[in-house]
Amino acid sequence: MPDPLLPEPLLTVRGLTIDIPVGGGTLHAVRGIDFDVNRGETLCIVGESGSGKSLTSLALMGLLGGRIDRRAARMEFDGIDLTGANKRTMRALRGDRMSMIFQEPMTSLNPAYSIGDQLTEALLLHRDISRDAARARAVELLEKVGITAAASRLGQYPHQLSGGLRQRVMIAMALMCEPELIIADEPTTALDVTIQAQILRLLVELGREMNMAMILITHDLGVVARVADKVAVMYAGELVETGSADEVFNAPMHPYTRGLLRCIPQPGKTERGARLGTIPGIVPSLVGKVSGCPFRTRCDQVVDACRQDVPHRHPGAGEHAFRCVHENGLRAGGEVVT
Amino acid sequence: MTATSKAETPVLELRGVTKTYSVKQGLFGTAKPLTAVNDVSLSLGRGQVLGLVGESGCGKSTLAKILLGLEAPTQGEVRVDGERIDAADRRKLARRIQPIFQDPYSSLNPRKSIEDIVSLPLLVHDVGDSASRSKAVREILDIVGLPARVMQTYPSQMSGGQRQRVAIARALIMKPEIVICDEPTSALDVSVQSQILNLLGDLRAEFGLTYLFISHDLAVVEHLATRVAVMYLGRIVEETQVADLFDTPRHPYTQALLKSVLTPDPGQGVPDTELGMEYPNPIAPPPGCHFHPRCPVAMDKCRTDRPYPVATPDGHVECHLFGGEQTQPTKSA
Amino acid sequence: MSDMTTDPLLAQITGPTPGQLLRRRIFGHQGLLIGAVVLALLVLVALFAPVLAPHDPYAQNLLERMQPPVFLGGTWNHPLGTDHLGRDYLSRLIYGARVSLLIGTIAALISGLIGTAMGVAAGYFGGRVDAVVTFLINVRLAMPVVLVALAVVAIMGGSLQVVIVVLGLLLWDRFAVVMRSSTLQVRGREYVAAARAVGCSTPRILLSEIMPNIVNNLIVVVTLEMAHAILLEAALSFLGLGVQPPTPSWGLMVSEGKNMMLFEPWMVLIPGAVLFVLVLAINLMGDGLRDVTAPENRS
Q: Is B150 in contact with C21 (Cβ distance < 8 A)?
């Protein structure tokens, strides 16, 4: 429950559930997740493939396909109810107050239209503004995202740009209407590390400058640690641990979070050439009835109680929370392996 | 030049390898040369892991293709155990160098069973009869951590990690000396990635394998490699022992690459790599040092004169900051 | 069961094999099943024509000319009536299925061989081979099939063999185009590079790595071109330049019936209808095959 002294969060999600009909049953892809995003805040949703993190972002934008069933106890963007929002309301929000950046800029930019046309499209749609003013705004934003000779780029087509430039154009496009919330799904995964650092830096700086909230979906723990204010670790359709970046990375509680951090080589911490930690097994099937802790099939702390409902735990005074039958994420007598 | 401190012959040696493509721009454009790999010399001792890093388009994949015999170098030669390998002799090369590719979804033929996929090298090289091949497949699958039961299954029935294990089994069944790993874990989930990295490390120790490990993930390279080569626009601009490179990076490009590594340390923010934006067009590389337009410490000389390799205690660096005058032309030593 | 839990890696290999998946999809596709059943029936009719036909299709009986079919007041002796020479219409229809299917199959086979060889070579080798093949495809596409077929048949004289060969040599363009692009797609896959790195010879790569992954597209084109060839044969025969009388061909039957069309429309409608049913069945099957094999291509 939100603290009455704090301002209402920009985005509130309670009990978001996504069911996908598949041959022979229902895939319970996302099951009752809760989170808030405040203005100007960056939430990173981190998870592996099949965790439901991308579906969550599409659900927020109202971009799930028609066959997919999305339910939520509460889903509000700045007081606007998104659960019952009709197409018109969503269209008015999308691209204006909330916008999205996709992983693959080549497939999300339309090859048949010039950069200038695509940049100004949303602005001309949502605002009463002249074409010239829209183009001026496009040039301004292209410069802001670090594109040189911005005016001359407006006439270019996506295939004439490199991957890094295309992603910058995507960002500029997402910023055209000065959205209050940006949802970025793996925005730098397809890019080189050097370009990745630049793009992320740009996103963080622009977010701060424009007091924009951001939901960043990624599998890269390094990106999360450097960018996030808040972290939500997602596994098999559930948020298993949430908290500030500091809490989740420096005091991880859930066995999955701890396992993930052991899996990646950490320069300066992991000994070169030593064996890395592993999480054995695979993500369970989410078709049919799903009960208990979804991580129990791979967990090194598993006990019989993991088949039952798993309680939410709040270890500290802050927002840090995780779901585990064990009070500190460890089986009695178990110890933290690092 | 690469310093080979050991007296033994390197298991893999490249001398002045160059690959030039002819690229046509547009429908009626004239063909222009694109030098994907530019006069690369490297040598690698047995059991070493050479990490090859660089941005996309720097030529690292072309170099891998040359080593696999999938492309012939325009100039220069590749030696395995001191013996010159002609790219035309692919069958001979195949017994000694095998690849593991990035995408386990594209590297296994979806129409073939796992047994057929893994036994293909034996079949092609006429090794044993069908019973002994089947036995060899079972053994190698066991080594990579897959039960014999998977032999009759198809790639579509497996997860990414399992597929990558199959690809490793296929690469190892001929007992090659060198394995070219081209981004072997970048398509995998974090938890699966560490399993495959551990497996690669174990296999190296067990079979004395030598790896060329191409990756964009510098943390992974630092973890697995014994030596590291940094590639930029077809040139190896720095090559040295792993500890030396990560502890005291010399080339400004290496420094920028290391800066761009995002370690999972909260609160540190995203670093400024101080690199310019654009990877230059390889068809029209900048004059002088190819890196100078993005280099934060570029000098006048960098804009006109190309640098030459300078020996460092464990390897070499190619940058005017460390000398690199044209004192000794490097044309095939 | 027990080692499923001890071996987490194995636990997940439970999905169907590609073969099982294909079977499941085929039996879940109505259009494909209908097309296949109708086509199978027509093939059986063609094979057992001598058993099924009530009369000799060539036997003339000028006393019983132009008898109407049984549903228009005819007798059961000639269920579908007789033609202008008193030949039993049903028998000619049954034997006509042989001509149509023979021409469709063999023409598609010949053009399939030519087109596949050209397309796969162009897609795999690229460069000059591709340039030559692309040029040949363009030349072929610039030729109007019907006019060229008419001209050749007019010179060589119409016969079953000539029609088959002419159609076989003319209908390879779609095979070449489709096989070229499918090969291009598959050639870039890493398993092809892996096979090359293993030391596989080019023929082996083409046969065991490329072909199995493009054969589904090939089957689809085969069905389409079969239907195409059957229609072209009918058209040529109708124009008098295809199969020559007295061979029973559906196209020829339509042609012979056209003079009576205003008085005895069934003489045109009956062969026209079976031709329509055959072509529809083949196309249903082709479309169905494309549907059931496409999802695998995507994954």
A: no
Alpha-carbon distances of C72 from A63, A95, B251, C80, C83, rounded to whole Å: 60, 68, 95, 9, 14
Among the listed residues A310, A327, A319, the one whose alpha carbon sits nearest the alpha carbon of residue A31: A310
- So what's the pLDDT on residue B250? 93
Please enumerate residues of C whose Cβ is less than 8 A from a Cβ of A. 8-9, 11-12
Look at B68 and C197 and tell me if their CB atoms are within 8 Å.
Answer: yes
Check if the interface score ipTM surpasses 0.95.
no
**Which segments in chain C show pLDDT lower than 70?**
1-15, 294-299
Does the pLDDT value for residue B267 go beyond 90?
Answer: no
Mean pLDDT on A28-48: 92
Residue B185 sits at the vertex; the CA angle it makes with B55 and A191, to the nearest 5 degrees, is 30
Give the pLDDT confidence score for residue C143 in this predicted structure: 87
CA distances from A281 to A31, A252, A261, B73 (A): 21, 21, 17, 43
Residue spans per domain, chain A:
102-176
The number of angstroms, rounded, from the C-alpha of C171 to the middle of its chain's C-alpha atoms is 11
Q: Look at residue A22 in the predicted model and tell me its pLDDT.
A: 80
Q: Is it the case that residue A276 has pLDDT exceeding 80? A: yes
What's the 3-state SS for B93-134?
HHHHEEEECCCCCCCCCCCCCHHHHHHHHHHHCCCCCHHHHH
The reply to whether residue B279 touches residue A192, judged by beta carbons under 8 angstroms, is yes
Query: Which pLDDT score, from 0 to 100, does residue B48 have?
Result: 92
Query: What fold characterizes domain C46-57+67-298?
Result: MetI-like fold (1.10.3720)
Probe site for chain B from C4, C24, C198 (most B CB atoms < 10 A): C198
Fold adopted by B12-264+274-322: Rossmann fold (3.40.50)
Region A95-124: mean pLDDT is 83
Collect all residues of chain C within an 8 Å Cβ-Cβ radius of residue B117.
Answer: 191
Q: Given a cut of 50, is residue A53 above it in pLDDT? A: yes
Closest CA to A61 of A43, A82, A45: A82
Contact A139, A150 (CB under 8 A): yes
What are the residues whose beta carbons fall under 8 Å from the beta carbon of B157, sequence distance 6 or more?
C13, C14, C15, C16, C17
**CB A153 within 8 Å of CB A147:** yes
Dihedral sign computed on CA atoms, order B71, B72, B74, B75: positive
**Chain C adjacent subunits, 3+ CB pairs under 8 A:** A, B
Task: Compare CB distances from B268 to A165, A226, A279 and report the shortest one's residue.
Answer: A226
Alpha-carbon dihedral sign for residues C265, C268, C274, C276: negative
Strand partners, A37: A11
Q: What does the pLDDT look like over A137-181, one tens digit per residue? A: 899 888 887 787 888 888 888 888 877 788 888 888 888 888 999
Q: What is the pLDDT of residues C133-156, one digit of tens each?
A: 999 999 999 988 888 888 888 888
Q: Write the DSSP symbol of residue A94.
A: B
| CB B150, CB B108: distance < 8 Å | no
Distance separating alpha carbons of residues A57 and A55, to the nearest angstrom: 5
Beta bridge partners of B181: B100, B213
Domain extent listing, chain B: 12-264+274-322
In this predicted structure, what is the pLDDT of residue A335? 55
Interface of A with B in 36-95 (CB under 8 A): 48-49
Give C7→chain A minimum CA distance, Å: 8
Q: Is B110 in Cβ contact with C299 (below 8 Å)?
A: yes
Q: What is the pLDDT of residues B214-241, one digit of tens each?
A: 998 899 999 999 999 999 999 999 999 9
Specify the higher pLDDT residue, C26 or B209: B209
pLDDT value, residue C2: 31
Q: What's the pLDDT score for residue C109?
A: 94
- Dihedral Cα B279, B284, B287, B293, nearest 10 deg: -20
Chains that touch A (3 or more CB pairs under 8 A): B, C
Q: Rounded to a whole number, what is the distance in Å from the CA of A216 to chain C's nearest CA? A: 27
Sequence ranges of the domains in chain C? 46-57+67-298
